[in-house]
Amino acid sequence: xxxxxxxxxxxxxxxxxxxxxxxxxxxxxxxxxxxxxxxxxxxxxxxxxxxxxxxxxxxxxxxxxxxxxxxxxxxxxxxxxxxxxxxxxxxxxxxxxxxxxxxxxxxxxxxxxxxxxxxxxxxxxxxxxxxxxxxxxxxxxxxxxxxxxxxxxxxxxxxxxxxxxxxxxxxxxxxxxxxxxxxxxxx
Length: 187
Prior knowledge:
- By secondary structure, the chain is an alpha/beta fold.
- The chain is built from 6 helices and 6 strands, in the order E-H-E-H-E-H-E-H-E-E-H-H.
- Helix 1 (17-28) packs across helix 6.
């Protein structure tokens, strides 16, 4: 049985280095793990409890929740916008945290990684993302971390899948997240 890992990317930019990291994770997933890159976060409206009622939930939010419910784990890719989590990723977490007490994260393992231009690779945003997704019900795997600094220069001419060091690190991240699915199920 394959473990389904849903990848959510906190950048909407077509040439996003975090999107490239997610694409690399899809390609590098070890046997037994399937990483699905969710498409459509740009279409999910800002969370509003007034529209989060049966029969009124926007189609894009329903699609996100269905993909999340069908997943065994989550891999979140967060750049750093003004020192914190990008709005699109926070919005996805907000939608997936509802309905209260029965959100899609439901104790499933979550790893947060990413890259940013700065010297710390987006650590603040990734820490904020871990905090938000943990409060939203995810089981944050705190010891899975990957923050790649200098994204603009490091990936200027090389896709992350072709960077041997990054490829090895991503493969390890996905393998460890995959292993955590079994630990959560056994608990």
